[in-house]
Every structure is written in structure tokens, then in C-alpha cells.
Amino acid sequence: MSQNFMQDGVTLTIPVSSGVTKIYSGCPVYISGGGVMAPATTTSGIDGVATATCAGTADPGNYIPADCTFRTDGVFAFAPAQGTTLAIGNVAYVAVLDNSTASPVAYEQVGARFTIKNAATATGGDVAIGKVVGLGGGWGFKNLPATYGLVLIATRSNSNLANA
């Protein structure tokens, strides 16, 4: 059951912005100025991670609601961006969010659609989303490539991480 307040580690549900085609499960998300959900960008920071696929227009035939349920705290797996080698302790930044590809992506339920950069590959203005606390298939993430970063997310309201 969703909570109706934001506190460490709660699950919340709010409407998706009408202009958003799709937010896949595992996508970093933020609450826009209009109080609706949108996929995170390199400069937005995050308010949590989507726990189920949602969209601006509901698709009942495919079980895709127009409300987005997201988790505000936890460790989430993300693939490294091209040219990025992750290490434990790296600050993570959003690189690319793939919310348009219709075909399945290997490991998509554990972050394959959403790549991250570290401080060496982030560019000026990129907002930190958390710290890498593990690599590969640890903490219940089975069979992930060793290059994946397990990121303890830092929401916009609780982050004290510096921007790139």
C-alpha cells in the first residue's frame, strides 16, 4: 500500500505528466513543478525510482497505469554509460534514460535502460543521484554484469552530494 507522505524509504504514487509516453520500472524519476511524475534528466536530480511501468496516458490492455508508484529510498542497479568504469564510492549521475524503446532490453528490470556516469565522465551541471555502494550481482541482484553499479540513491530533498 502506498503512503501519502514523503519520508525515508516510503513508496508513493502520483500521476504521470501527460506528456510522458512511458516510464519503465527501475527508472529514476522526479516530481515536476506541476506535482506530476516525469523521468529524471541529467539536471533534474531524482525523487525516487519507479517500481512499475507507468505512462501519461493509461494503457489498461498492457497493465500500464497513469499513476506512477516509486520508491524514495534504497539501492538500485544501473548500467554504466559508454566509457564509464564504476568503482565503489563513486558519485553516480544520470547519463541516459531510455523510455522510448519498445523492444525488451537485457536486464531492463534492473537498470539496463538507465545508464549512469561517475564524476570523471559527468559534465558540468549534471546532478548527483547517489553513491555506488556495490558492483555487479550483489545484494540480491542476481546474474548482473560485474560492471553494473548498485547505487544508494539520494533524493533531491535529502541529497548533500555536489553537482558535476
Overview of this protein structure:
With 164 residues, the protein is an all-beta fold. It has one domain: Virus Head Decoration Protein, Chain: A (Beta Barrel), CATH 2.40.300. Helices cover 0% and strands 30% of the residues. It contains no helices and ten strands. The strands form two sheets. Strands 1-5-4-2-3 form a five-stranded antiparallel sheet, with no helix packed on it. Strands 6-8-7-9-10 form a five-stranded mixed barrel. Strand 2 and strand 3 form a beta hairpin.
In DSSP terms (H or I, runs of 4 or more residues), the helix count works out at: 0
Distance between the termini: 36 Å
Mean pLDDT: 85
Radius of gyration over all CA atoms, rounded: 15 Å
| Strands in their spatial order, largest beta sheet | 1-5-4-2-3
Architecture in CATH? Beta Barrel
* Most strands sheet: 5 strands, antiparallel
- Based on helices, strands and strand pairing, what is the structural class? mainly beta
Query: How would you spell out the order of helices and strands?
Result: EEEEEEEEEE
How helix-rich are the residues, as a percent range?
under 10%
CATH class: Mainly Beta
Tally the beta strands: 10
